[in-house]
Amino acid sequence: MNAWLQAAAVLVTGAGLVSAAAAHRLTGDVRRALAVLLDFLTAAGLVRLAGAPSWDGILAAAAVIALRRLIGSGLAVSRAAP
Amino acid sequence: MIVSVELLPESTLREAISLLVRLVESAGALIIFIGAGWAFVQFVKAGLRRRDRVAGFNRIRLSLGRFLVLGLEFQLAGDVLRTAVAPSFTEIGQLAAIAAIRTALNYFLGREIAQERAELARGGDPLERPVGGKPS
Q: What keywords are annotated for this sequence in UniProt (chain A) (predicted)?
């Protein structure tokens, strides 16, 4: 099952890259495109966690999710800045 | 003489729970995968059409967030099932770490969805809100 989950996670990551490009074309804003990419990366991390993950897998998923929060907060700060 | 009848041997219980956990977690992963696929198709379609730009973009992101939360609920249900058998301290530690990640993510996603939904209902742009999620 792990091989399937890995393949699905890679597919979701690829879909995230294409969707981020589409979001950039749609809105013309890099921050929004980045937010979409981070959503997809989170989805990929969650799919990867569904199997029987090792400590490395758990740490990688935690790092992606923490990074997502960090970048999200950074984007909010940059939007609020004059 | 003591006659003991084992109605449900531990090994059978472990196998049954393992099967259930796999089913529930697969369902969660499938929901997340379907949500990502759906959002991908919608983003590509919206990107090609370039109509109703920001509103369409926000609707798609909101739906993707809902799919993620639903998938996470299934995966958390799998974690709860796993606690029925606790084979080793290593596995208990891994389970605790995964459950903590999923619970935190579920909380943050739920909060983001509620904020974006409130902004959409007000007719504003959720991506333009200042720090702290409060509307200007």
A: Membrane, Transmembrane, Transmembrane helix
Structural domain boundaries, residue B110 = 29-122
Interval B75-100: pLDDT, tens: 888 888 887 776 677 778 877 888 88
Query: Whole domain around residue A36: which residue ranges?
Result: 2-80
Beta-carbon contacts of A44 under 8 Å, excluding residues fewer than 6 positions away, are A9, A10, A12, A13, A16, A64, B36
Report chain B residues whose CB lies below 8 A from the CB of A21. 47
B contact residues 71-90, partner A, Cβ 8 Å cutoff: 71-72, 75
Q: Is residue B19 part of a domain?
A: no
CB distance A48 to A65 below 8 Å: no
The model's pLDDT over A25-54, given as tens digits with 9 standing for 90+, comes to 888 878 888 888 888 988 888 888 887 667
Domain count, chain A: 1
